[in-house]
Amino acid sequence: MSCSIVQKDRSGIINPIFNCQPCGAQYAGMGVKDCIPLVHGGQGCSMFVRLLFAQHFKENFDIASSSLHEEAAVFGGIKRLDEALLVLARRYPQLRVIPIITTCSTETIGDDIEGVIRKMSRKLKEEFPERTIHLVPVHTPSYTGSHVSGYNVAIESMVKTIAKKKDAPNGKLNLFTGWVNPGDVTLLKQYMSEMGVDATTLIDIESFDSPTMPNKDSFTHGSTTVEDLESTGDAVASIALNRYEGYSAAQYLEKKFNVPATIAPTPIGIRNTDIMLQQIAKITGKAIPDSLVKERGVALDALADLAHMFFANKKVAIYGNPDLVIGLAEFCREVELEPSLLLLGDDNGAYLKDPRILALQESAEHDMEIVCNADLWELEKRIKSGALKPDLIMGHSKGRFVAIDAGIPMVRVGFPTFDRAGLYRHPTIGYKGAMLLGETIANTLFAQMEFKKDREWILNTW
Amino acid sequence: MTTQTKELVNFIQERCLWQFYSRAWDREENINGVLGQLGELLSNQTPKLETPMDRCHFANANHLAREVRSAFPWLEEMSPDSLTKLIGGVMAKLEEITITKSKNGELHTQAY
Amino acid sequence: MPMKLLECDTVIPERERHIYVKEAGEDTTQYLPVSNAATIPGTLSERGCSFCGAKLVIGGVLKDTIQMIHGPFGCSYDTWHTKRYPSDNDNFQLKYAWSTNVREKNVVFGAEKLLKKSIEEAFDAMPEIKRMYIYTTCSTALIGDDPKAVAKKVMAERPDVDIFVVECPGFAGVSQSKGHHVLNMGWIHDKVGQVEPEIWSEYTINFIGDYNIQGDTFVLKDYFDRLGIQVIAHFTGNATYDECRSMHRAKLSVVNCARSAGYIANELKKIYGIPRLDIDSWGFSYMAEGLRKVGDFFGIQDKVEALIEEEYAKWKPKLDWYKERLQGTKMAIWTGGPRLWHWTRAVEDDLGVYVVAMSSKFGHQEDFEKVIARGREGTVYIDDGNELEFFEVIEMVKPDVIFTGPRVGELVKKLHIPYINGHAYHNGPYMGFEGFVNLARDMYNAVRSPLWKLAGENIQKEEAL
To answer: Which CATH class is domain C50-173?
Structure first.
């Protein structure tokens, strides 16, 4: 059985898997309470991303733009940035955090963001002596990394700027969730509560799933407060659930404040969740409660109904954020699905050294191909040529036409999932997430069987 | 401006796009062309349709004639002289609103 | 004071020049919002960028053309899966997004080599496609790449392909509008006239400024087919690259969106003497009016009247059914600009609906001249509205439904106000006779949804519901 790791051999991209860095930075900033991310660049850099998040969450998020115009190409964009900060502070009296997110234009122009922050922090303090507004420099040009690294950079920048050490150990666990959905955060909070762990969720986006209320006062916002960010310096430990999304912040806290940092395996699937819980138990000294063992048992029970009967030997193609793809591949293995094609969507060389990828390679009992720096044409051309005949595709909604045109069942997972309703509300991680994934995969395959009249009759006595 | 001029001007303002083309000279061409033919149509004359622009003005003028005849029955009773004066007044007022007194800063830019 | 300074704008008082509340007896020589001006930074304006106006609105609609975006991949990713313009070419234009994938080293050393390679790869990957648009973005404009030179080289090496370059970095201009302008002017000067179409009718038109949102173009094409009118080029709904190179051969340019494509209509008149006829292709009465004008131009009035009679017989009863139920409904329109003036009168005449507030992202003063002339007194007219202004205006005018984008729609949902997707429709098409009935149906279903009443119920009250 072969497992090959290849690089996309084209220079250009056809159908990008990822968005660029500023998108990830905005996602991180959105999760902070009383925070309006300010994207320093052309208006599209924020407007397109606001639309993308609206597509995924069916919510509006407040993100501002410095509205770079042509004169900035000659004179620089500092003036517009200065003005944007004042306008925001003046019109939004509750504002406490403004991440200043750079883009390819302003990085190329070379605007001195740190200089602006020094100057404007003073100015804002003069004008609003009773307020503290944290200005966070977030350097995220679009020509390096992707939205994955943009998220990582932003989390680290916010922690760097705001975290303090008061030398008052608070017994908290910094929980860097990585790029997850509100449903994942709900699950993590539930787990922490059942374990009796006082965790600071970074970033707490549970409130992204915001309601419509009788008094019309509902508003979509993040829930991580300035105090939460400040408290990270006094935590007992940090745990990062996604290696490429949030671990840098944990490493910073370790270096600067001696808060020990652990990487958990992305907790998708039973085994990964087990390890994460055991890591947390070890770090915090709290025992894993019976309730979680039961939840685990319910999930295993459900998956056992599906694995060898319906999933075994089915080939899966997976694309999306790297931690997600790896976690999903590992989950697939647990339930006898064969992750035959993994697409990692940017040129981060670290993927090649990721121990999880090496482990997948070594333990492969089926043909597997991992494409680095991939785009979705890599998926489409393999299917069109017949080189790959996946039984299932797992990935985000921008790959939908490949699945639709080829008639291949597709489970939407990751970001964005705008062509299905409500997916962000449910977990992909944890035991519950594994169970839901398994059942979603099963139901998708069942619908396909009925549509294609492929042994659909066996289902009525399953 | 007479009441009738005002009514007609308001009607055209509410219903017509040709008065709002991109530049002063476009607007002037349309106002003259369309209203010129409107005058002819309302006097039961047939406008000369020789050039493509003539036919384009006619497209706008003919529809306008239908609409104003229906909206303003007093047009039927008008003498040719009064009609000429009326059309002249409407032209002048429209030019004022859409060109000479317009606050639209793009009207006099040479290039489109 | 007709120019209005909203409370949320007291710290940015220049906004007063952008917001107008029409009162009786006023006209646009007295009050006209400032438009197409620099955006105030940090306001949460609704504007997008120049690249968006070029690629997403106009160029990306073409059904047979590779859209090569010269820059980092975000610009490509962001303009993919965000529009609802189908085609009869298996929706090729919806399925793919190309990028030259500019990385840091290209910003330092230049990206022309990368551009050339990406172009070749794209053509090689899809050998049946022979046309391409190249767009510059913020970074590639700043580093001074010359994509036109690269395109020239490729066309010399591959004589069967044709490439058009649009220089539309995001920071150019103040909004999407700059992108429209650059693309229009580039196209007429670089490409129109290069292809001679086969003419099968003596009645030939360009239909300019319609992008086949949910099949609008198909509706209009059906009318023109039935009238025996040949559409040389639809700019750019369901169009091919080469059809749009043949625009010089039409006898008439019929224009719907004068904002995004008035430019090319003007140039076609200036250079080729083709008259420009502006119509509204949204609106039941407007559609009849537009067709009658085209009929008058060509002298085919009988055919037009027959078509209108057929369409009225089919759709007017349905329209009237909705009119009866929508009478007095208050609507707000927060879209790009032109739909403000296309819809404000049409919904009133055809459906008895009153538009009480309108905001334009990228309209020019010309668009405000039109909308204010057509619009009601007491209505709020806003240039470049921002989020806090929206909240305040909603309080002022209390609309029953808002036609706007999905994101803003999600915002107003919290206020128990339904939205209709004013850009890409809920259940379209919205153009033509049947289209306006679709619009009415969506509006009716939106405002009469039982969910709004339920949303307002407080179940914690002591009295029973």
So the answer is: alpha beta
pLDDT higher than threshold 70 for residue C1: no
How is residue C462 written in tokens?
């002591």
CA C149 to chain centre: 31
Interchain proximity B22–C296, CB inside 8 Å: no
Sorted by where each begins, the domain ranges of chain C are 1-47+327-424, 50-173, 204-305
The residues of B whose Cβ lies within 8 A of any Cβ of C are: 13-15, 17-18, 20-23, 26, 52-53, 55-56, 58-60, 62-63, 96-98, 101-106, 112
Residue ranges making up the domain that contains B21: 3-100
Which class is C1-47+327-424 in CATH? alpha beta
For A28, the 3-state DSSP assignment is helix
Q: Which residues of C touch B (CB under 8 A)?
A: 27-29, 31-32, 36, 185, 251-252, 258, 262-263, 266-267, 270, 273-280, 289, 292-294, 296-298, 345, 364-366, 369-370, 373-374
**What residue in C sits closest to B9 (Cα-Cα)?**
C373
| Interface touch B20/C27, C-beta < 8 Å | no
**β-sheet with A97-102: strand ranges across:** A64-65, A38-40, A97-102, A134-138
Cα–Cα dist A303/A318, whole Å: 20
Buried-exposed string A7-25: b where 16+ CB fall within 10 A, e elsewhere: ebebbbbbbbbbbbbbbbb
pLDDT in tens, C104-126: 999 999 999 999 999 999 999 99
Q: Around Cβ B43, how many Cβ atoms within 10 Å?
A: 13
The span from the first CA to the last CA of chain C, in angstroms, equals: 44
Q: Cα-flanking dihedrals φ and ψ of residue A340, to 5°?
A: -85, -30
Number of Cβ atoms within 10 Å of the Cβ of A236: 17
Number of H helices, E strands in chain A: 17, 15
The reported pLDDT for the residue numbered C465 is: 65
pLDDT per residue as tens digits for the range A140-150: 999 999 999 99
Residue A364 has a pLDDT of 87
Name, in order, each residue with C-beta under 8 angstroms of C34's C-beta and a sequence gap of 6 or more: C17, C18, C365, C383
Do C297 and C277 meet the contact criterion of CB atoms below 8 Å apart? yes
Chains A and B touch (3+ CB pairs under 8 A): no
User: Between β-strands A3-7 and C276-278, what pairing exists: parallel, antiparallel or unpaired?
Assistant: unpaired
H or E, element range at C243: helix C241-244
Measured over the CA atoms of residue A65, residue A71, residue A74 and residue A78, the dihedral's sign is: negative
Percentage with pLDDT > 90 across chain A: 95
Q: Which amino acid is at C69?
A: I
Whether residue C333 contacts residue C308, with contact meaning beta carbons closer than 8 Å, is answered with: no
User: Regarding the domain with residue range C204-305, which homologous superfamily does it belong to in the CATH classification?
Assistant: Nitrogenase molybdenum iron protein domain (3.40.50.1980)
Q: Please state the ipTM of this predicted complex.
A: 0.98
* pLDDT above 90 (res C463): no
Q: What is the pLDDT of residues B59-78, one digit of tens each?
A: 999 999 999 999 999 999 99
